[in-house]
Amino acid sequence: MDALSDAQLARVVRRNTVILSASTTVTSGTLQLVAALASTTFVLATGITGLLGLGPAIFLATSACAALPAGRAMDRFGRIPIIALGFAVGAVGGVVTGISVGAENGLGVVLGFALIGAASGTVQLSRAAGGEMYPPERRARGISLVLFGAVFGAILGPAVFSPLFAGKELDADSLVTPWIVAGGLMLIGLALVVWVRPDPKRIAERYAAPGTATVSAAPLREILARPGVPSALLAAVTSFAVMVSVMNLTGYAVVHEHHHTQQDVFPIIGAHVFGMFALVLVVGRIVERFGGTRTLVAGLAVEALSCAGLVWAESVVAHALLLFGLGLGWNLAFVAATTTLVNRAAPSERGKLVGFSDLMSGLTGAALALIGGYALEAAGVVALGVGAAALAVLPAIWIAGRAAATPAPAET
User: Fold this and answer.
1) What's the sign of the alpha-carbon dihedral 370, 260, 102, 64?
2) Cα–Cα dist 130/196, whole Å
């Protein structure tokens, strides 16, 4: 890497960023199917309606459990080999889920969800890989550029999956093809990421302070105690858990609580994904302009307001607007939190730290999806909306109160 001129390095970073962003498009399109149909697929395959949140909970839990070991593996073997493995696992998971739901095999669906979840937990670490290719003062923008690919995923998901349900009754057989198509999309992601060269970790070492690229990584507990990390970690966990649990349960609520069609769910999820990523380039600049703490608090507040609005929403348009707001709030908090975590860790520590953040986020999201599914079935949308809003507000208050006493730490 040292042999590259600044101009050559800039070209390499741009090319790698475009490829990683394109792979995010594929991931985003695939995960919309999970958001829209995980609960319904689980219920149709098992016949168990009381545990409708278990479907997305399985996906989220396995995504979380994969994140930390995947992050550690990335620190050891490089970012791209592990991300590519994640896409391969996701392709298998899509096919297994499709075949299993057609056979109404609940155990097979659980296995398929677990594989797709593990793939998601792995490939979503690519946003940190994108950020570390840029110098510290531009990392928020680098992360944003990689995540921007998901904007096109917001178009890809409905364009691919909505026609597959047009004029069809929602039953187990109608779910086979969409899940297999999702597996095919993950193969496209695999074909893209193998062209990322050199590995982002090698590029990141160029920006590290002298000697830090080769020193041993600090223990995780030491990294977690660094200034700024606790607040960023809390915001990352809360924003993701609230967002993903509400997102995964909204599809079921729209169809079964408000009696819309399954086809109507995809525009709502598309609006949500659009909110998550459409303004991500602006969000990166907001983080750089106003700082991480203010952006974290603002993001959690927007999430809380959007969740509270679900109490009154009934139409498809209202749900789409609120899910857009939920995605935008997550975007603000997520980019700010990821930027802070990347900046507080050396190249040999970033995979571990971001992986731990994703582990805690996914496990919390899985728990909230399971609890939220029970609450939705027992008490309706009011319990889901009010509970999610409260969970977003409380950490925002804590972070805002802590900020004044926390000095701004140096970036790595």
Assistant:
1) negative
2) 11
Residue with tokens 């509270």: 308
Give the residue ranges of DSSP H helices in 344-379: 350-379
**Could you tell me if residue 269 is inside a domain?**
yes
Distance of alpha carbon 214 from alpha carbon 198, whole angstroms: 18
Q: Look over the chain and give the mean of its residue pLDDT values, rounded to a whole number.
A: 85
The CATH number for 325's domain is 1.20.1250.20
Angstrom distance (rounded) from CA 324 to CA 270:
9
First to last CA, the chain: 19
Answer yes or no: is 412 within a domain.
no
Distance CA 151, CA 406 (A): 35
61, 246, 323 from 273: Cα distances, Å: 21, 13, 8
384 near 56, Cβ under 8 Å?
A: no
Vertex 57 angle, CA 54 and 59, to 5°? 115
Q: What's the CA gap between 174 and 116, in Å, rounded?
A: 19
Pair 232, 400: CB distance under 8 Å = no
Contact call for residues 153 and 273 (beta carbons, < 8 A): yes
Q: Which tokens belong to 280?
A: 């991500």
**Domain membership flag for residue 409:** no
The answer to whether position 411 is within a domain reads: no
| pLDDT-wise least confident of 34-48, 162-176, 258-272 | 258-272
Reported as a single tens digit per residue, the pLDDT across 30-44 is: 887 887 788 788 888
Quick one: how far is CA 45 from the chain centroid? 26
Domain range for 190: 6-403
Q: How many domains does the chain have?
A: 1
Of the candidates 134, 126, 125, 123, the residue with the CA atom closest to the CA atom of residue 203: 134
* pLDDT digits 0-9 by tens, 37-87: 887 888 888 877 666 667 777 888 898 899 999 999 998 899 999 999 999
Q: Distances in Å between the alpha carbon of 360 and those of 24, 243, 344?
A: 22, 14, 18
Instruction: For residue 337, give both structure tokens.
Output: 């939190």
Q: Which two tokens stand for residue 25?
A: 């498009």
